[in-house]
Specification:
The complex is a heterodimer of chains A (222) and B (113). With 222 residues, chain A is mainly beta. Helix content of chain A is 7%, strand content 61%. In chain A, the strands form 2 sheets. In chain A, strands 1-2-3-4-5-7-8-11-12-13-14-15 form a 12-stranded antiparallel β-barrel. Chain A has a two-stranded antiparallel ribbon with strand order 9-10. In chain A, a hairpin with a 2-residue loop joins strand 4 and strand 5. Helices cover 49% and strands 25% of the residues of chain B. Classes of the chains: A mainly beta (222), B alpha+beta (113). At the A-B interface, strand 4 of A face helix 2 of B.
């Protein structure tokens, strides 16, 4: 009951605040962006190319599994990212993004009697909202992961602050707290406090979640 | 002969002033809050053949592009590059200060706050 309420709240907040696992999910025009997000239950690797300042096309691979390891999914997809709206303020920036993909899902459901394997087509449309100043950060994301008889919708909320402002060419450390859930795979709300390091050349986050599992994220533009 | 010599001296002085005149385009930019996201501005500016140096200051919201001797770049081109990188230019000016000078000036301003 408690978890259901939290899940509902997370989803509602994400949709209301209009929200993903990363900061800006694409680079500047004509750049490539590589992104990775790794822990025990969720491992994701994406790369996209920004054809315009607002559009990026890419490919991604995601491995997700249940807490008890009885279900696992592997998804290879083609992705599209669109900057729907950007608000450039004097000391802040806010963005509304669309992220979506279509690809091949391979699934495995283990039961005592047998291992059921299947292949399906999965679609993954979603939205992300983020707001950032040089000291504060907020992000909410909700993305559907749907295939016939499969619903692994992903919801996340993130908030954090930087320890201090830094120069453009210096590394800036942040504290980020994330709560996220994968429907149909985990009943838990995964909560991860992370240390984020932002430099003009790289973006990395590392932390340990509430199941004492390590987590690592990165982004790189080239 | 004297006239020719004088003309040559005047012309060389003028040419030398032109040759060594620094031109920097300084823009105030809205939305520039993160170095990782703003790297597009620097990379696009540095890719231009006219660019000598680039300076980005997140706190003061300033982008400064110093041009090579004898090279020109319009304010509109700079605005367009910054816009394409995802930001909005609120004001733009051309100054004869170098990027190093602007950097020192802005950093001194920050320290005095």
């Amino acid at each position: 009951m408690y978890h259901t309420r939290i899940k509902t709240l997370l989803t509602a907040s994400a949709v209301m605040c209009s929200v993903s696992a990363h900061s800006a999910p694409m680079g500047f025009s004509e750049s490539f962006m590589a992104m990775g997000d790794f822990n025990n239950n969720w491992r994701e690797l994406n790369m996209n190319y920004a054809t315009t300042p607002r559009d990026a096309f890419g490919v991604g691979a995601t491995y997700m599994r249940a807490d008890d390891n009885m279900k696992s999914r592997t998804l290879e997809e083609f992705t599209y990212t669109r900057l729907i709206q950007r608000w450039n303020l004097p000391h802040a920036q806010a963005n509304l993004w669309f992220q979506g993909g279509i690809g091949a899902l391979q699934g495995l459901d283990k039961t005592l009697a047998e291992n059921h394997r299947f292949d399906k087509v999965m679609v993954t449309p979603g939205v992300q909202f983020d707001y950032e100043t040089t000291r504060l950060y907020f992000q909410a994301a909700h993305r559907l992961y749907r295939a016939t008889d499969i619903n692994h919708d992903f919801t996340s909320l993130r908030a954090g602050f930087s320890f201090y402002e830094s120069e453009y060419d210096k590394t800036q450390p942040w504290f980020i707290l994330e709560a996220r859930n994968m429907n149909g795979l985990s009943e838990k709300i995964e909560v991860t406090p992370m240390l984020r390091l932002i430099n003009k050349n790289y973006f990395v986050e590392a932390g340990v979640n509430n199941s004492r599992e390590p987590r690592l994220n990165f982004m790189y533009i080239f | 002969m004297k006239k020719l010599l004088l003309t040559t001296v005047v012309l060389s002085t003028l040419m030398s002033n032109i040759a060594f005149a620094t031109q920097t385009i300084k823009a105030n930019v809205n939305g520039m809050v993160c170095a990782f996201c703003a790297q597009g501005i620097e990379k696009k500016m540095r890719a231009l053949s006219q660019t000598q140096d680039v300076y980005v200051n997140l706190k003061q919201r300033v982008v400064a592009v110093e041009l090579k001797e004898g090279q020109a770049l319009s304010n509109d081109q700079v605005k367009s590059i910054i816009k394409d990188a995802g930001y909005d230019v609120t004001s733009i000016e051309v100054t004869d200060h170098t990027v190093s000078h602007i950097k020192a000036e802005l950093e001194a301003k920050q320290e005095s706050k």
